[in-house]
Amino acid sequence: MAQSLSSLLEITIDFDQSHLYFPRIVMVLLAVLLLWIVVSNVGRIRAALSGEGARFQFFEPHADKLRLVATLALIPLYFVSMDYIGQLIPNMGMGFLLASIPFMFLLSFVYLHQRTPKLIMLIGANAIIAPLFVWFLLGQMFNISLP
Question: CA 122, CA 70: separation in Å to the nearest integer?
Answer without folding.
Answer: 21
